[in-house]
Amino acid sequence: MTEPAPVVTQKPTGFRWELLTLLWLAFFLNQADRQIFSVVLPLIRQDLGLTDAELGLIASALVWTYGLLVPIAGFVGDRFSRRNILGFCLLFWSCATLLTGFCATVLQFILLRGIATGGGEAFYAPSANALLGEKYRESRSFALSIHQTAVYFGIILSGIIAGYIGEQYGWQKAFYLFGGLGILLAVVFFIRIPKDNPIVKSGPQKPLLAEIGETARIVIRKPTVIMLTLGFGCMVFVNVGYLTWMPSFLVDKFGMSLTDAGFSALFYHHLGAFLGVLSGARISDHFAKTNPRSRLVVQALGLLLGAPFIYWISMSQTQTMTYIALFLFGIFRGWYDSNIVASLYEVVSPKIRSSAYGLMLACAFLIGASAPYLLGVLKPTLGLTLGLASLSGVYVLGSLFIGSGALCFFDKDRELTE
After folding, report:
1. Do residues 178 and 268 lie in contact, with contact meaning Cβ atoms separated by under 8 Å?
2. Which among 16-25, 74-83, 106-115 has the top mean pLDDT?
3. Percentage of the residues of the chain whose pLDDT score is greater than 90
4. Residue 344 belongs to what domain range?
5. Where in the cell is it found (predicted)?
6. From CA 207, how far away is CA 190, in angstroms rounded?
7. In this predicted model, what pLDDT tens digit does every residue of 32-45 receive, in sequence order?
8. Does residue 175 sit within a domain?
9. Domain holding 112: CATH number?
10. Using a CB cutoff of 8 Å and minimum separation of 24, what contacts does 142-147 make?
11. Number of folded domains in the chain?
């Protein structure tokens, strides 16, 4: 009867690191599958003869779908097995990604790349972060930080791999490859990760929509949360517009190959964002010890200081100057990113923090989702150069929203939270 003891003590450790590895790979594909379309967009436009407005609409459809479903995904993750949610959503969006390679019309792209891929990906983050938080209680920050690095690798490497495959073998093959890898990973995930049981809450459970409505009524009474959400929406608007059209911009302006453009559009910016997240977190943590409002101030400054470099990206006449602008834009975007959750938590009760973040995320993505479509509509007349440059104004607007929340409403909202 003493023999099973070593198995019981050793298996959780191995399982936890195996879980982190598999979730890192899933999150990598989550970000990569989202970015493939933007990288091979010039090839799709040339092959299928789609207009810039139609291509922008396809990109916006994914963000709209994600924004509508992510708050529901957060509540669902507290009610059902997170292993099952993660495995099935990975399988679903990977199948949709693979089938996107067979698309030939705008409607097919919207249904498969926009709605199906975006809907599947919306259910990943809430359950993945919650599962990691449970399994790595003694090293939670480390595990979540490792998991977050998949965002940078997924976006950057997808630019290189999808660009190369698209140029050499056709844009369809990029979707086949990443979708096929996701299906294989989903099978491994179901085999290797044991099913978990959802936490059963005491007392009668309210209907899902009732819980969402109750949380919404609480947070909408806090002007600071509204200002943070509007600022978040401005950041998302710029981010999805930049991610969708920047590879095409470099191809058109400098005659770069798709592989080089996919890499350059994403690498320099996200390198800066990585450094910006680290420095922004240290700055805000230092000043927040004496003044919690500092977290919002750092976010507002990140958007305000990043705005000139968005303009510089578009107007630079050389590739080198464009890369420098992309890097500095990333630095200050990182300042903003480092406090998205921390700023919200300063004015929201711990009881509703997860659901409040889900609602803020949903509103921000719904606000920002129209950027790819609008830039696509404006591209034939205004031009992509001026269209991307105009995004700097959206960053300034976001800074004003967050700054007004910090100066006018923060103290009262924080007192009500305490």
Report:
1. no
2. 106-115
3. 40
4. 207-417
5. Membrane
6. 29
7. 998 899 889 989 99
8. yes
9. 1.20.1250.20
10. 143/20, 146/20, 146/24, 147/20, 147/23, 147/24, 147/27
11. 2
